[in-house]
């Protein structure tokens, strides 16, 4: 575990005692400092009091909708929020991500996967405060100042739209970025999810230029029905 992850404060907001216990015991073993809340209101109070480095937020809370808790925390906090949901509907995931969540995990979940996603979210949050003009992902480098992309030391020729799409995904490495957000940021507010064919075409172009095997991508990963996730930096 990276040094900046050790001792990170994690707030668990979930009304199920057995889930909180499982998360507490497991995450404490990874040297995280755990705080808990069983309701939305308690979660809001703890978030303000503890100022956690990351929040695990259940959407099915007894007093407040999880999305309302998410929205209220996002009014003042940039701490990564990973949504825990028993709902597997794509629209629920999209609404949560567009509402400010950094990631989502569907119950029942693998603790190994959850810990990995927590680490990615913490690393991404830490990198946000660092001015990095060049992003590096293995053999791929993206020079944000000069808008130059290189793979294995050789320049990759991208169209302006391809570059804008790649940049948007890369600066959010490790996070799920919804189709809606990508369309609005790259093509403008006049485009919506109904125009997702634009996205598929350009993602296909990028994969052909960046991936050794575009059918098994290593950089741009698909979150079916939701959006895309750029590989996190190791």
UniProtKB/TrEMBL annotation:
Residues of the Response regulatory domain: 9-122
UniProt keyword list: DNA-binding, Phosphoprotein, Transcription, Transcription regulation, Two-component regulatory system
A family per Pfam: Trans_reg_C
Gene3D superfamilies to which the protein is assigned, alphabetical: 3.40.50.2300, 6.10.250.690, Winged helix-like DNA-binding domain superfamily/Winged helix DNA-binding domain (1.10.10.10)
Superkingdom of the organism of origin: Bacteria
Residue ranges constituting the OmpR/PhoB-type domain according to the UniProt record: 132-232
Entries under CDD domains matching the protein: trans_reg_C
Segments of the chain annotated as binding DNA: 132-232
Modified residue annotations for 4-aspartylphosphate: 58
InterPro entries per record: CheY-like_superfamily, OmpR/PhoB-type_DNA-bd, Sig_transdc_resp-reg_receiver, WalR-like, WH-like_DNA-bd_sf
Keyword presence, Transcription: yes
Protein name: Response regulator
């Amino acid at each position: 575990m990276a040094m900046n992850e050790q001792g990170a404060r994690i707030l668990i907001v979930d009304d199920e005692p057995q889930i909180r216990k499982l998360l507490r015991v497991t995450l404490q073993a990874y040297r995280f400092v755990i705080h808990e809340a069983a309701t939305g209101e308690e979660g809001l109070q703890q978030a303000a009091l503890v100022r956690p480095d990351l929040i695990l937020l259940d959407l099915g809370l007894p007093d407040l909708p999880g999305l309302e808790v998410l929205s209220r925390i996002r009014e003042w906090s940039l701490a990564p929020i990973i949504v825990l949901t028993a709902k597997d509907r794509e629209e629920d995931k999209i609404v949560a991500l567009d509402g400010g969540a950094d990631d989502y995990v569907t119950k029942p979940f693998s603790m190994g996967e959850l810990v990995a996603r927590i680490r990615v979210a913490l690393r991404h949050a830490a990198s946000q405060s660092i001015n990095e003009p060049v992003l590096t992902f293995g053999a791929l480098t993206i020079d944000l100042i000069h808008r130059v992309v290189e793979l294995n030391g050789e320049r990759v020729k991208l169209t302006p739209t391809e570059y804008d799409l790649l940049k948007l995904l890369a600066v959010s490495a490790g996070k799920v970025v919804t189709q809606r957000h990508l369309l609005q940021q790259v093509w403008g507010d006049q485009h919506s999810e109904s125009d997702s064919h634009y996205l598929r075409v350009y993602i296909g172009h990028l994969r052909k230029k960046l991936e050794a095997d575009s059918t098994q991508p290593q950089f741009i990963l698909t979150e079916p029905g939701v959006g895309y996730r750029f590989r996190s930096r190791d």
